[in-house]
Specification:
Number of helices: 49
CATH superfamily of the largest domain: P-loop containing nucleotide triphosphate hydrolases
Protein name: ATP-binding protein
Radius of gyration: 55 Å
CATH class of the largest domain: Alpha Beta
Largest sheet: 6 strands, mixed
Oligomer: single chain
Shape: elongated
CATH topology of the largest domain: Rossmann fold
Strand order of the largest sheet: 10-11-12-13-14-15
CATH architecture of the largest domain: 3-Layer(aba) Sandwich
Number of domains: 7
Helix content: 40-55%
């Protein structure tokens, strides 16, 4: 090879041209596309399975060929097309030659299959199409049209049949384009049947995955059924000679990953009718393909050098255990690839490229790092040595020519980290950089076996004779230098160097997997998740009305089934829907009263760019959130976070372009009317459009100039101010400014809401609440409330529902303001509108009641009681004069509510004793029961009370007998008086009973008499009951009634107001008993005071005889006598104890004997009291 002017290696070896092309089944056909095609293992196997299918009867002739991008599926489709052409076709002859050479047995099987279907001479009607993202039926129609057009026949009848098929196809396609009407399965079957009568039909669809993706998006049952029917048609030779071949990148079930369980089951039924044929070559087949990719010149010198190079290379490969490339013929055929590059390429192309497409680009492309470029630029050396394309150049090719590698390739995070470290490191020599690239690429394809970045493998791969890497030793030196610098790491346990530290994460796979999972999720749902829209303010309207109007915003598309509307509890004043599809539902939630908050619809001509961008963002977010491999790999995570941010920015830019402020001409703003019609909004989009909508929807809203109250959620200070304002409204309504002083927030609320609107104003010389003037903006709200009150005559209205109506169009009152307006209207109409809590009528409007109302308005109801006529009017006019004073919160007398409120309040204020006692007349008992159990004011007054008095009900119309009316009024007046006087009578009875027990007949002198007498015994009584009585009798209490209550409490331990009838009886008995004890102690104390002798103890001895008579005497015992007689008593007790057994029995028996001895008939004595003064005094009572 020694020459004066060395030639380039391209003179001796070059790649075959065919490998520089990509194939399209509709465009590329014929012998030129197959001139250099080499059927490899997977293609031969697929043809063999096709031949077996064609030769079988009564089985589905449906093949599903699945292989990754760039694996040669389209080229295989061209081969199948050629093999099934007529016998005289040039492409058929080329294809037969290729197959018979590569696999004679398979060729024979295919020839037999053609004969079996009577297609050896005529060939098939070859209906080929490359699918797009479209329904299956569209692709099938295009394929049938192509097949009918290209089939060659000299038979006139067949030509007419083919032309009719084409005409039918054109008609169906026109119907689809104009009317959107898809052909039926029956129509497709008729077309295929007519073609199959001419010749067997080959229906081959390349890129079938796009059809499947379109189905996954649309869920078209028609598509699913057509696929199933196509497969079934192919099994019956008698009816239809059909074979179906689909080609896609993924298996059927992977396209259905996002479908529901039921849809996946239906999908599985269809997939089961197709025979799955994997179209993936092994690494050995790929290396054989590389060997066939080169053509060599006939040069003995070059051939000799090549043999020596391959021999040495194989020896080294065997020494390193790399048996896959220990084949001299293979290594020689694949030069100029270094054996390690040859070993790595299949894995690199599969994991980081597009299989054969990437491989052929590297071998034959024009890239600066391709093999073809190296052959053209590298000169033959003078010493007959052969350089080669080493691993570092392979690395450069994949980096430089794969701009999207990081975002699309399997294992992208690993590649990104290695490339980042190599690219960003500073200060490396060229030799170090070549070695570092070698280590990096070996890291990428390392399988943990012999092909790894070990020292020996790196030295073989990188020792290229260049400066710094001339020999193994120099390569090892470069490794030591980079290890010392921290660029690479030596892993002892794995016997390899590492540039990469992360895990092997397939970013493209992770994103694709997430995208397939999200395919069933609508774009609107995705955007709600990743880009929820903040509320939009109707700025101009808000400024003019004083109420901040905000509209929530949401995304919708064709999959949105129903449009929601903000409810009564929702603070939003309306909703804006941004529509992403041309067709969408206008089915919407309708309120029962028709007062729906406004709905604005924004449409665009084309929302697909937004949908695509949203899916991309959502898929990346899903991968970041759910893929555990990404979570654990910081490189992959960082890369995906960056990509997610970029995708989000792209989405935002697309949203701004489509819906932004400067995109008014691209979007159309419309109002959804009550009848679901869309009306254009005569205002530019955005806030201006919403102000126009708010003007229409809330045209009856009052102008409110108080931001503290005019909001949905009040601050703590605002809530307190409102509470104080409402309290003033209830208790000081007749005062100017409601009696509010100063300039606090409650005063600001009062002036802005009640005073400026003249709802609270001076009327006929008195301040009060009433309707605002007609020219104020509060007029419509007030009229609505009055009408609502009037509508509550038959059924009660829940206050919470009424407030919700105030918050809906056309008023739009805020939750903070509505209670204030409601309270004012209720007070103004208090004589006719009743308030209920938990179904119970509340006669008085109190601050405490309204505090509960503010917290839980849904627990309160109102009901209207209108003006009465006839007999009921007469009863009201007379009854109101019989009842006590005015009622709190009521404006006028003479109404049902005024009368009933007074009745209910008068009974509710009675003590519990009066509410429970039976010591009343039947009439009072009946009236009391009717009032206490009443729930409806008019029913109480006109039915229940007359019934309690034994009278007929008062009719709503007509007359009521005069005697009945008089009896009703008299009975009611008597019952109320009796109930009112019942408790004072109890207190009077307490004084009377006490006077009788203590011997004071004059009731008027009881308190003064017994208090003076009790004072004489104060501090001298041990008995607790008597001591409590004395405490009560001497208590300094101003009111006689309160003094009587205190006495009753001390005697019974129960307040008289809460007495039962039994408690009252107990008082009578205990007062009598305590009175007797009191009088005895009083007498004893008197005698003691009469005989003041320090040497004596006084004992009062009382003996009760069997006939009930008692005798009492005071015994004075001198101290000396007691000492002398004490021994006698002790002896007597001991003697008696010997008889009785116990000291207690002995003492009691002695007392009994003494009583019997001293007084005939006396049997028992008992000490009852004692009192001592100085040496002491006491009283002992003995009774039988």
């Amino acid at each position: 090879m020694t020459r004066s002017k060395p030639p380039r290696f391209a003179s001796f070896r070059r790649p075959v041209d065919r490998f520089a092309r990509s194939i399209n089944v509709e465009r590329d056909a014929g012998s030129s596309a197959l001139s250099s095609y080499l059927p490899m293992g997977r293609a031969v196997d697929a043809v063999h399975r096709l031949a077996a299918t064609l030769s079988s009867s009564h089985v589905e002739r449906a093949l599903s060929i699945t292989g990754p991008y760039g694996s040669g599926k389209s080229s295989f489709a061209v081969l199948v097309d050629a093999l099934l052409r007529p016998v005289d076709d040039a492409a058929r002859r080329v294809a037969d030659d290729l197959l018979s050479t590569a696999a004679p047995a398979v060729f024979e099987a295919l020839a037999a299959a053609r004969i079996h279907l009577h297609a050896e001479r005529t060939g098939f009607v070859r209906c080929l199409a490359t699918a797009e993202r479209e329904p299956v039926v569209v692709t099938v129609l295009r394929a049938l049209d192509t097949g009918a057009e290209k089939f060659s026949t000299s038979d006139a009848a067949q030509k007419r049949a083919l032309e009719k098929v084409r005409a039918s196809v054109r008609e169906l396609r026109t119907q689809m384009q104009r009317a959107g009407q898809q052909p039926t399965v029956r129509q497709i079957r008729e077309l295929v049947e007519r073609l199959s009568m001419v010749a067997p039909v080959l229906l081959l669809i390349d890129e079938f995955g796009k059809n499947l993706e379109a189905f996954a998006d649309s869920r078209s049952a028609a598509d699913l059924f057509l696929l199933q029917e196509l497969a079934e048609w192919s099994r019956n030779d008698d009816e239809m000679r059909l074979v179906i071949v689909t080609m896609q990148h993924l298996a059927f079930d992977e396209y259905a990953e996002s479908a529901s369980g039921a849809q996946r089951r239906e999908w599985a039924k269809v997939q089961g009718r197709f025979e799955d044929v994997p179209f993936v070559d092994s690494a050995a087949s790929t290396r054989a393909l590389i060997a066939a990719a080169f053509a060599s010149a006939d040069d003995a010198s070059f051939d000799g050098a090549l043999r020596r190079w391959s021999s040495e290379s194989v020896k080294t490969a065997r020494r390193l255990g790399l048996t896959e490339i220990a084949d001299e013929d293979l290594v020689r055929a694949c030069w100029p690839l270094h054996p390690l590059a040859l070993l790595a390429l299949p894995d690199l192309c599969q994991r980081y490229g597009q299989n054969e497409r990437t491989l052929f680009s590297f071998l034959a492309g024009s890239d600066s790092n391709s093999v073809a470029t190296w052959l053209r630029e590298t000169a033959c050396p003078a010493d007959d040595t052969l350089p080669c394309v080493r691993v570092d150049r392979v690395y450069d090719f994949f980096v430089d020519s794969s701009a999207t590698l990081g975002s699309a390739a399997h294992g992208a995070s690993r590649w990104v980290e290695i490339d980042t470290r190599i690219r960003d490191v500073q200060g490396l020599s060229e030799a170090q950089r070549r070695v570092l690239k070698t280590v990096g690429l070996l890291n990428l394809v390392s399988s943990g076996g012999t092909l790894r970045a070990s020292k020996d493998v790196i030295a073989w791969a990188a020792a290229d004779g260049e400066p710094g890497t001339e020999s193994r030793a120099e390569v090892l030196t470069r490794l030591d230098e980079m290890e010392a610098g921290g660029l690479i790491t030596w892993r002892d346990f794995a016997d390899e160097f590492r540039v990469w530290q992360g895990s092997d994460v397939d970013l493209r796979g992770a994103i694709d997997h997430a995208r397939r999972r999200l395919r069933s999720t609508s774009a609107a749902q995705l955007l709600e998740r990743i880009r929820p829209l903040p509320p939009l303010i109707a700025a101009r309207h808000s400024h003019c009305s004083g109420t901040l109007r905000s509209f929530t915003r949401h995304w919708v598309d064709a999959q949105t089934e129903r449009l929601g509307v903000p409810g009564a509890e929702d603070p939003a004043d309306g909703v804006v829907y941004y529509v992403l599809d041309k067709t969408f539902t206008t089915s919407i939630e309708h309120s029962q009263d028709g007062r729906r908050k406004p709905v604005v619809v924004v449409t665009v001509a084309d929302g697909q760019p937004i949908k695509d961008a949203a899916l991309e963002v959502a898929a990346m977010a899903e991968a970041l959130a759910s893929d555990e491999r990404v979570k654990q790999d910081w490189v992959a995570r960082a890369e995906l976070i960056e990509r997610h941010a970029e995708a989000l920015s792209a989405l935002d830019a697309q949203l701004e372009t489509t819906f932004g402020a400067a995109a008014a001409e691209r979007s159309k703003w419309q109002l959804l009317e009550a009848d679901d019609r869309l009306t254009p909004i005569p205002a530019r989009g955005g806030s201006m459009a919403l102000s126009w909508v708010a003007d229409q929807a809330y045209d009856s809203a009052p102008v409110v100039r108080n931001d503290i109250l005019n909001r949905h959620q009040l601050s703590s200070a605002g809530a307190k101010a409102r509470r104080e304002l409402i309290e003033a409204m209830l208790t000081r309504r007749q005062e100017q400014d409601l009696g509010i002083e100063g300039f606090g927030p409650e005063m600001a609320m009062y002036r802005a809401i009640l005073k400026d609107s003249r709802i609270h104003w001076l009327r006929s010389g008195t301040w009060g609440f009433g309707a605002p003037p007609e020219n104020t903006t509060y007029g419509p709200v007030w009229k609505f409330l009055v009408a609502a009150f009037d509508a509550a005559k038959q059924d009660r209205i829940v206050v919470g529902d009424l407030w919700a109506s105030l918050g809906a169009p056309p008023f739009g009152l805020r939750a903070g303001l509505a209670p204030v307006i409601f309270t004012a209207a209720l007070i103004a109409n208090a004589d006719q509108v009743a308030l209920y809590e938990h179904g119970t009528f509340r006669p008085a409007l109190t601050p405490e009641l309204f505090e509960r109302l503010l917290r839980n308005p849904e627990r309160f109801q109102i009901k209207h009681f209108g003006t009465r006529r006839g007999a009921r009017r007469d009863l009201l006019d007379l009854a109101v004069k019989l009842l006590p004073g005015a009622t709190v919160g009521r404006e006028r007398a003479g109404s049902v509510l005024a009368v009933v409120s007074r009745l209910v309040q008068s009974v509710n204020m009675l003590p519990e004793h009066v509410k429970k006692t039976k010591s009343l007349t039947p009439g009072a008992l009946g009236v009391r029961a009717a009032i206490l159990s009443a729930t409806e004011p008019d029913d109480l007054l006109f039915r229940a009370i007359p019934a309690a008095l034994g009278l007929p009900a008062v009719p709503p119309t007509g007359t009521y007998a005069g005697p009945h009316l008089k009896a009703l009024l008299d009975g009611l007046a008597h019952a109320i008086r009796e109930l009112t006087d019942a408790y004072p009578a109890v207190l009077s009875d307490i004084v009377t009973v006490l006077g009788e027990a203590l011997g004071v007949p004059d009731r008027r002198q009881v308190r003064s008499n017994v208090a003076e007498r009790a004072q004489m015994l104060a501090g001298k009584v041990v008995d607790p009951d008597v001591r409590r009585l004395i405490t009560a009798l001497t208590a300094e209490i101003d009111s006689d009634d309160s003094w009587a209550e205190y006495v009753g409490l001390q005697v019974t331990n129960v307040e008289p107001a809460a007495w039962t009838d039994e408690d009252r009886t107990v008082f009578h008995a205990r007062a009598s008993a305590l009175g007797g004890t009191f009088r005895r102690l009083e007498a004893l104390n008197y005698e003691r005071r009469a005989r003041e002798d320090d040497g004596f103890d006084a004992f009062r001895v009382t003996v009760t005889r069997p006939d009930g008579q008692e005798s009492a005497t005071v015994v004075w015992a001198a101290q000396t006598d007691r000492e002398r007689l004490g021994g006698i008593v002790e002896v007597a007790l001991r003697d008696i104890q010997r008889v009785t057994g116990t000291a207690t029995e002995a003492r009691d028996l002695l007392l009994a004997l003494l009583a019997e001895h001293g007084t005939a008939g006396d049997r028992r004595t008992e000490t009852v009291a004692s009192d001592k003064d100085n040496q002491g005094s006491g009283e002992r009572r003995m009774s039988q």
